[in-house]
Specification:
alpha+beta; Protein Transport Mog1p, Chain A; 7-stranded antiparallel β-sheet; 4-stranded antiparallel β-sheet
C-alpha cells in the first residue's frame, strides 16, 4: 500500500533529522544549505515573523513576449503550492495549505518552516539554531520533496534540547491515498507495518478519535531506541496522527526524547485540535 510505504519513509527521515540516529539505518548528508542574507533578530519569534513577512512579499511579474489577442490562454486560478504562514494576534502562526485544503495553528515559540522557502534558509542563522544538533535537524530535511512534506515545526526553544534531541513535527501529504477511519482496522494496519522499518520500535497504542473540530483522527503511539547527536543511547517517543482530506491523506508526526514528551506533547495535541479542512466540492 502506497500509504504505508509513505509513512515508513517519514519514520526513517524523522530519526535522522532529530539530531539523533537509529543504529543500522543510513544517514542523510549533514550539508547545510547556505542561508540567504537578511536582518536576523535575536529572538526566534521575531525571526520567524520576519521570515514570514519576507516570503509574503510579492515577486515582480516575469516579462513575457507580447502575443496576439487570439493567442491569449484562458485565465486559470493559481494555488500557492508551498502554503502560507501568517502570524496571528494570539501568538500562533496560521499555516494554510491551499493545495491540500487544510489549515492549522502553530503554537507560540515553535519554529515552522516550509522547505525551499525563505524562513527555512534563515533558520540556520538563528541563535536558537546554533547548536550542531539543531543544525543537523534542519539540514536533514533539505533534500525532501516539499510537495509531500508540507511543513516542519521545530522546537528550538531555550532549554528544550533534552539529551541532544531536537523535538519536531512533520506534516506529510499524500494526495492519492485514503484511510478507513470508521473503526481501528485501517490505523492498526499502518501500525503493524511500522516495527519492520525501525529496529526495536514498539507500538504502544492505536486509536481512532474525534478532534474538537469534529475530524476523525487515527492515532499511533510508539517508542524506539536510538542515538542522539553525541552518539549516546536514547529512547524516542513518537505520535502519529492520520486523517483524510478532500484530496488524499495527511500524517502529522511528532517525535521527541521520551523523558521530554510530557513537556512537549500537549503543544502538539493543541496544534492538532486547531486542524480544519475544506469541504469537498
Amino acid at each position: 500500500m502506497q500509504n504505508r510505504r509513505s509513512f515508513l519513509t517519514i519514520l526513517l527521515v524523522l530519526m535522522i533529522t532529530l539530531g539523533c540516529a537509529v543504529p543500522g539505518l543510513p544517514t542523510i548528508s549533514d550539508a547545510t544549505p547556505v542561508a540567504q542574507a537578511g536582518r536576523l533578530e535575536t529572538m526566534v519569534a521575531e525571526m520567524v515573523d520576519a521570515a514570514i513577512a519576507q516570503t509574503q512579499q510579492a515577486a515582480p511579474p516575469p516579462v513575457e513576449p507580447p502575443v496576439a489577442a487570439t493567442e491569449l490562454p484562458a485565465a486559470a486560478p493559481q494555488l500557492d503550492l508551498a502554503g502560507s504562514l501568517t502570524p496571528q494576534s494570539d501568538g500562533t502562526i496560521l499555516f494554510k495549505d491551499e493545495a491540500a485544503r487544510y489549515e492549522l495553528n502553530v503554537s507560540p515559540g515553535w519554529l515552522p518552516v516550509r522547505l525551499n522557502q525563505q524562513e527555512y534558509y534563515d533558520a540556520f542563522s538563528l541563535p536558537a539554531a546554533a547548536d550542531p544538533a539543531a543544525q543537523r535537524a534542519l539540514s536533514g530535511v533539505a533534500s525532501l520533496d516539499p510537495q509531500t512534506f508540507r511543513l516542519f515545526i521545530f522546537d528550538l526553544q531555550d532549554g528544550h534540547l533534552v539529551n541532544r534531541v531536537v523535538t519536531k513535527i512533520s506534516l506529510e501529504w499524500d494526495p492519492n491515498d485514503s484511510i478507513s477511519l470508521s473503526d481501528e482496522t485501517g490505523i492498526q494496519a499502518i501500525a503493524e507495518s511500522l516495527p519492520a522499518s525501525i529496529p526495536g520500535l514498539t507500538v504502544t497504542d492505536t486509536s481512532v478519535i474525534q478532534s474538537t473540530n469534529g475530524l476523525a483522527l487515527g492515532v499511533i503511539l510508539s517508542e524506539f531506541p536510538g542515538k542522539n547527536f553525541d552518539e549516546a543511547d536514547v529512547v524516542l517517543y513518537q505520535k502519529q496522527v492520520h486523517l483524510n482530506l478532500p484530496l488524499g491523506t495527511l500524517a502529522l508526526t511528532f517525535t521527541t526524547e521520551t523523558n521530554f514528551k510530557d513537556a512537549t506533547l500537549p503543544f502538539f495535541d493543541a496544534m492538532v485540535d486547531t486542524l480544519k479542512i475544506e469541504s469537498s466540492q
